[in-house]
Amino acid sequence: MIHIVVTAARVLAARGDKRKALIRENQLAVYHAAALASYVFRWLPLRLEHIFTLNGTDKHAPNGHRYAPHYRLFFREFRWKRIKLLEIGIGGYGKLLGGRSINAWRWYFPLAKIVACDIEDKSVLSVSGVKIYQVDQSSQDDLRMVVRNEGKFDIIIDDGSHLSAHQIFTFKELFTSLVDGGVYVIEDIQTSYWPGCGGQSLGQPGSTCMTYFLELTHYLNSCEFLSDAKMNDELNELASQISTISFHHNMIFVKKDTQVKLSNILQGKH
Ligand SMILES: C[S@@+](CC[C@H](N)C(=O)[O-])C[C@H]1O[C@@H](n2cnc3c(N)ncnc32)[C@H](O)[C@@H]1O
């Protein structure tokens, strides 16, 4: 009797594995078809909203995020340039393979090299113009390996674990690898308000991605501080290379600019 039950369980498991493999194969075929289609569609003047929707990423969906207008604002200057874009987080859980945003970026930036990282092995998604790395964004060694291999980036997008500690750590680690004039994006910062994701309820003390970037924002004006007694040197150094920190619904954009900020105090205009 036990033998029959064990055999039946094995047959069902084998069927399940076969089904999973089939689903993955189908998804891979769709991914490659979309990658091929991008060689044609990327030359059409499609809006980013439509590119996201057509590729099935949740970056812009009727019942999901509405990131496209914000992305367009910061990314349009790069659209037809030979840029290098790094995205952390390829997507695809369980049976799903992911790679939807990779294809979306290939459509939107026809001349770009896309570097995509994920904690899971997503190497099957490697296609022309796309380099895939298996990386844990909380590991300094992993992040430095990517930078060693790829050099500097024009755009960096953190759509990985969405944990505040990882978002802050990755920013501190990768911001130096952004070119002057480049843009750093953090998605899904709603987790700053969710204690289960390392966030905190509104009004409680603590360190989250949102509180970190709100504090960093003050340092954009550090040359106007009347006393540097409480100055945080690390934040000050970072902010000296930033022109804009822009907060949007569930996302933050940081624009790099190493030009020295002139103080109103030193110019005697206060
Ligand atoms: C929201 S999905 C990315 C979605 C994709 N960018 C898109 O727009 O279609 C998040 C991805 O981050 C990956 N991830 C989770 N923790 C990570 C970590 N510590 N380091 C790197 N990637 C991680 C997950 O495996 C998952 O594939």
Describe the structure.
This protein is an alpha/beta fold and 270 residues long. The protein has one domain (2-256): Vaccinia Virus protein VP39 (Rossmann fold, 3-Layer(aba) Sandwich). It is built from 8 helices and 7 strands, in the order H-H-H-E-H-E-E-H-E-H-E-H-H-E-E. It has a 7-stranded mixed β-sheet, sandwiched between helices. A hairpin with a 2-residue loop joins strand 6 and strand 7. It is globular and about 70 Å long. The mean pLDDT is 90. The structure holds S-adenosylmethionine. The site of S-adenosylmethionine has 23 residues, from strand 1, helix 4 and strand 2.
**Cα radius of gyration in angstroms:** 22 Å
Which strand order does the major sheet show? 3-2-1-4-5-7-6
Overall average residue pLDDT: 90
Tell me roughly what share of residues is in helical segments.
25-40%
| Distinct ligand kinds | S-adenosylmethionine
The oligomerization state is single chain
Q: Under the CATH scheme, which architecture would be assigned?
A: 3-Layer(aba) Sandwich
CATH homologous superfamily assignment: Vaccinia Virus protein VP39
Count the domains. Answer: 1
Query: How many DSSP H or I helices?
Result: 8
Q: Sheet with the most strands?
A: 7 strands, mixed
Determine the N-to-C terminus distance.
89 Å
Count of distinct strands = 7
- The general outline is globular
